[in-house]
Amino acid sequence: MFYHLLYPLASEYSVFNVFRYITFRIGAATLTALFIAFIVGPPLIRKLSSLRMGQPIRKIGPDHQYKEGTPTMGGLLILFSLLVSVLLWSNLDNRFIWIVIGVTVGFGILGFMDDYSKVRAGHSAGLSAPMKLFWQTLLGLAVACAIYFDPNFDAQLSVPFFKNFTPNLGWFYIPVATFVIVGASNGVNLTDGLDGLAIGPVMIAGGTFLILSYAAGHSVISEYLAIKYVAGAGTLAIFCGALIGGGLGFLWFNASPAQLFMGDVGSLALGGALGTMAVLIRQEILLAVVGGVFVVETLSVVIQVASFKATGKRVFLMAPIHHHYEKLGWPEQKIVVRFWIISIILALIALSSLKLR
User: Can you give the pTM of this predicted structure?
Assistant: First the structure.
């Protein structure tokens, strides 16, 4: 909105020329989302508490009963600050920004329905897994088709560390892109189990994709790095900046001991947004590196379920894997910080792939 209102004034007042630069708007979007989260956070917590939107806690597993009743649906704080900031600072003529906004809102609505069903029923079950997966797949498929049938799209897949290996997937790109979006959404959702655990890797991934999307949308930089140039992708860096700002604001209230839990409204939406950005800038495989923590959390659940069904034995003391470490006696904050450190290392590896090819 500011871009459309103020940048045209640059012809008369040179000071407004600053709105032309994506780098300026990235910083402004980050700070705007952060300040909105700081302002909206306390009244939102009070409102959720008054409505008794407390998080139901499972009776099995590590002892988290002291967290019973902590307000959930805190993802609303992230999404509100994120989306308001993006609308204020983005070029709203850019179709990419509307695709990511649509995915964020769509997955957020699904997550809200899941959170609300948990609170209403008073247990942690929520919507059934098949129902959630159906709607996630439908949303992911719609986005994948919208991207694939764009006249300027080609179905070449970028492979990290291999400069000239870009296989053309053809129509098979649609299920691949759908899998990336749905997998990212579920990965973040499974990681959201300890205070601050999910939002840290989400912000780190957001920062990494801020750099990647800016590079992909800049013809000179993309050519220098030998990555695919995607016209208009630079605007996604503004979304990433707002995501970081909203995430930092949420972390202020989510740091242990949490005053507010993210809930599925946040984790499903943020995961879906990360997956969609990876597809839009053609770094689908690199997302698995950047979001390695999400991948491991998801695989731990798959392995645990498969092993128990096949042999009746469990590989981990409890899945997702962060609960396994809790069962081993690791303090919650140690698990969270170490997962953050791993996420930073993976982000550096992902960024190094831009030149190590």
Answer: 0.93
